[in-house]
Amino acid sequence: MAPPAVNGNAPLRYFTADPTLVDQRGLSPDEVEQCLDVMNALRVWREADRLLSEVLRRYMKLNDTDMRAVRFLMHMQDAGRPATPKDIAREVAISSASTTKLVDRLVAGGHVTRVPHPTDRRTMCIDVTDATRTAARETVGHQHARRFTVAAKMDATERATVVRFLTALAEADVPTGKLAVRATGNA
After folding, report:
1. Buried b / exposed e across 28-41, counting CB within 10 Å, b at 16+?
2. What are phi and psi of 126, to 5 degrees?
3. Is this model's pTM higher than 0.90 or not?
């Protein structure tokens, strides 16, 4: 998959094969190009995923954090587990004050309701409304089903290879060096 041309010029390369950065030992020039093609295909998919997320958030009238919270709440409800504001704060990594504002926004938007906790009278739980659950199912659910279809069309060996690759990629993306210090906040 060749990178797209920009304004009729040679295609931009978003990834480098600079041997001072990338270990090319044991790879032929064709294999280096294949690796770059893989990285470019990932970039294209990430951009498509970003655009899809943006469209879904606009459709649902939610920002990114609100969407993550609603997704979490739906998973909790599906698992039959009550979800409290404290659970939301932990899941989306925001303060309790921000969580209060988030829940207030979602209640005002008709996305969630506050309900009594089933076993703790002092605690409120947050449930996704039927309307939001239906809207999410008809949009996000259908998009996820299309992704599932892509995976279903692969054979078992291809799926295992993709899982191994994506798992290794996630491990490779753990911040190291100067970035690790920034990620932990210990700068």
Report:
1. eeeeeeeebeebbe
2. -120, 125
3. no
